[in-house]
Structure formats: structure tokens, C-alpha cells
Write a structure and sequence with these properties.
Length: 418
């Protein structure tokens, strides 16, 4: 009888320990990260400049995609960053549905992000022509992006997560006055520019880094139309610098609200200046990342919203006062993820920097980051003032004046609902 009592007591203790362990694990957000090489093996058309009329002529530096998966025991989310120009809505949907099928992460909880790299292969974001090599590359790319998410999902461990903020002034407002009085692409030191460097650090429970997620508002356009070599531009250079200082962990760099923001160098064919941006930004990322003290985080929230806004045709010129012709409605996607008190607010377009600043300043969460080129491509998203001033962005924008308030209001509504 006494022996049975001891056996019963032991079983109770074992079951309690298992239950306690599972409960403890569910109370800490788990995270996993993975990197995959997405460099083309064959010459392919390059995106970012319409004047390129030949395929790529070599590899200057390899390009990558990095996947991060978060899981609080009730919800899962996936963030995939790629050194590419962008993704069409159909492409993003195909990838996110496949990720859901293989990992159980709801497709609405996936954030497929391009850093808007102008030195990368065409992804047909803008309906470019298809070549045989490009068909092969895109099929391989889709497999690799899904594989990265699956690998990150399989590597989930209880995590410590923290964030920090730095500053990098190697970016500048590009809406500059020209001799005829209009606005064109240039350098405007008096224009508004967000210089924030947002860094999210993810460690395991031993304090060993799993990965870093970085955001800085800037076009990846140091490389210009003269360059025919595949490159990660400044994001690739910055990631390499950081990875050397953090034992080659995945470093995902995304673009903040930078529809009107360029690097201080380029566009041209000078890789030295590309690496200069990467060096200065990389040093700031490392400094911030080392200062962050990750903590246990207990909650994960994700909200997704899709709306249509009034559309417009491409304007005839960039000059102020140009007639605005209504066009087909434009789809906008918002995906907002909150990990603890860290918010990543994603949108499917090129958001002008002042709108991003508005959202960050009005968000109830201090650690709010704007992530652009997410889950599709809605084109340039401009302020109302930009339409009055003219310039490249409002000229090619597919949306009508008035979209500024719609975007800010939707972002803040989602953030406040998290």
C-alpha cells in the first residue's frame, strides 16, 4: 500500500512538473530565425531603373532573405525580410499561404517585406517582362522564402526580446527645387527626414543573440542604373558589417517611411560609397544592439487590414498645378505586429517620411517602427502637400490626394486596438 502511495505521489509530481514547464514556456514568447541565400545563379533582369536594358552581368555581393517567427503559445507571426525591390500582392499571397500550410502561421499574420533594393533581380512587382532565366529564378525564390520561414519556425526557443534606438544621418530628403521652380530628385537638406535607427534584439534565455531586426528610412539606391551587378546596396553592406560583430546571426534590415528619402550618395556605380553608408549605419546598429537589454516578453498581437483608396492616373508632368486624373481604386494593406511593447507597423507601399513620423509620434507605444513594402505594392503614398508641390513621387503615385489622413488614421486605429 505504501509503495502504491509513493508511485502515485511521484506521478503527481511528474505531471505537475510537466504542466508547470508547459505553462512557463507558454508565458514567454518563443522566437526562431533563419537566413537563406537568394542570389540568382543565372543572368536576370534587374529592377529599380527603367533604363536598364540588359540582364545582370555578375554578382558584386550576394543577397539574402531572413525569416523570424514569434509564438506566444496562442498566436504565431512570421516576418520575412528580403534584399529585393518589392513584391506584388499575388506573389505575397502565394508565399504567405504556403507558409500557413507548412507552419500553421495564419497568412494574415505574415509580413513579407522587401527592403526596396534597386540592385536586385526583377520580382515582377511592376509587371516587368518575363525571361526564361527570370522564370527559373522566381520559382526558386518562392521555395527559398517559404523554406526560410519553415526553418525559423522549427528553431523556436523561449526568447528574450528588447529594442533600442539610434541615429544615422546618411539619409536625406530628396525633394529638391530645380531651376524651373519645380521639384525633382535631388538633395534637400532643409526637407524633413527621419534619421531613426530602430533595432530589435532577440536572444535565447542564455543571453545569446538569435537575430536582429533593424529599420532605417532610406531608399536602397546608392547603386544606379549604370550598375549591372547584383548587390544588396547599403542594406547588404550594413548587414555584413553587423553580422561580423554578432557571429553571423540573421540581421534583417527593412526600410522605414522613406518614399521621399535617399542616401546621401548615389545613384551611381560607386561601391565604395555604398559600403560607406553600410559602415556608418552598421556601426550605429552594433552600438545600439549592444546597449539593448532583452527581457522576457509574454504577449504577441497581430492585426491585419485591407482597404481601397481612391486612385489616380500617372500625371503628365512633375510640375505643380498639374491636373490630377482619377483612376482605378488602389489596394492598401496594413499588418501591425506587437511583441510585448514593441510595435512594427507594416504597409504595402512607399510611405513619405512625414507620415511615418506622424504615426510614431501619435502611437501609444514608444517603440513603434514603420515598415514599408510589406505584403504587396501600392506604389508611392504621398502627403497632400506633395501633390500641390509636384515632383516625382506624386507624379507617379497611383493614389489621390487625401490618402495621407486615411493611412495615418488606419495605422493609429490598428495600433490602439492591439
Amino acid at each position: 500500500m505504501l509503495k502504491r502511495y509513493y508511485v502515485f505521489t511521484l506521478l503527481v509530481l511528474v505531471n505537475f512538473q510537466i504542466s508547470f514547464s508547459q505553462t512557463s514556456k507558454s508565458q514567454v514568447v518563443m522566437a526562431g530565425a533563419a537566413t537563406v541565400n537568394i542570389t540568382p545563379s543565372l543572368p536576370v533582369p534587374m529592377s529599380g531603373y527603367a533604363n536598364r536594358d540588359q540582364p545582370s552581368k555578375g554578382i558584386h555581393d550576394e543577397i539574402f532573405a531572413r525569416a523570424f517567427v514569434f509564438d506566444d503559445g496562442k498566436k504565431k507571426s512570421c516576418i520575412i525580410q528580403a534584399d529585393l525591390i518589392g513584391f506584388s500582392f499575388d506573389f505575397a499571397d502565394e508565399i504567405n499561404k504556403e507558409i500557413e500550410k507548412k507552419t500553421g502561421i495564419p497568412k494574415e499574420n505574415c509580413l513579407l517585406v522587401a527592403v526596396h533594393n534597386h540592385g536586385a533581380p526583377v520580382t515582377r512587382t511592376y509587371g516587368e517582362a518575363v525571361t526564361e532565366n527570370l522564370t527559373v529564378y522566381l520559382a526558386d525564390l518562392k521555395k527559398k522564402l517559404v523554406e526560410a520561414a519553415v526553418e525559423a519556425h522549427s528553431k523556436r526557443v523561449p526568447a528574450l526580446i528588447g529594442s533600442g534606438k539610434g541615429v544615422c544621418t546618411m539619409n536625406i530628403n530628396r525633394r529638391a527645387r530645380h531651376h524651373e521652380g519645380g521639384i525633382w530628385l535631388g538633395r534637400n537638406p532643409d526637407g524633413i527626414c527621419d534619421h531613426d535607427v530602430d533595432v530589435v534584439r532577440i536572444d535565447n534565455l542564455n543571453g545569446e543573440p538569435i537575430g536582429l531586426m533593424v529599420n532605417w528610412p532610406c531608399h536602397a539606391t546608392v547603386g544606379g542604373q549604370e550598375n549591372y551587378q547584383i548587390t544588396g546596396d547599403w542594406p547588404g553592406s550594413a548587414a555584413r558589417y553587423v553580422e561580423q560583430n554578432f557571429k553571423s546571426i540573421p540581421v534583417a534590415i527593412t526600410a522605414g517611411a522613406s518614399g521621399d528619402i535617399n542616401p546621401i550618395y548615389g545613384p551611381h556605380n560607386n561601391f565604395g560609397e555604398m559600403n560607406a553608408i553600410g559602415l556608418v549605419l552598421g556601426e550605429e546598429i552594433v552600438t545600439v544592439a549592444k546597449s539593448v537589454k532583452p527581457q522576457k516578453v509574454n504577449t504577441l498581437s497581430v492585426l491585419h487590414r485591407e482597404i481601397e483608396v481612391p486612385g489616380k492616373e500617372k500625371s503628365v508632368t512633375r510640375m505643380p498645378g498639374e491636373k490630377i486624373v482619377p483612376g482605378a481604386p488602389v489596394k492598401l494593406r496594413f499588418t501591425v505586429i506587437k511583441i510585448g511593447s514593441i510595435v512594427m507597423a507594416g504597409i504595402s507601399g512607399e510611405l513619405m517620411t512625414s507620415m511615418g513620423i506622424q504615426v510614431k509620434e501619435q502611437s501609444p507605444y514608444r517603440n513603434t517602427t514603420i515598415v514599408t513594402h510589406c505584403n504587396g505594392s501600392s506604389g508611392y503614398l504621398c502627403t497632400d502637400a506633395a501633390y500641390e508641390e509636384g515632383g516625382y513621387e506624386p507624379m507617379v503615385s497611383k493614389t489621390m490626394p487625401g490618402v495621407e489622413k486615411i493611412i495615418v488614421d488606419n495605422f493609429l486605429a490598428l495600433i490602439n486596438e492591439l
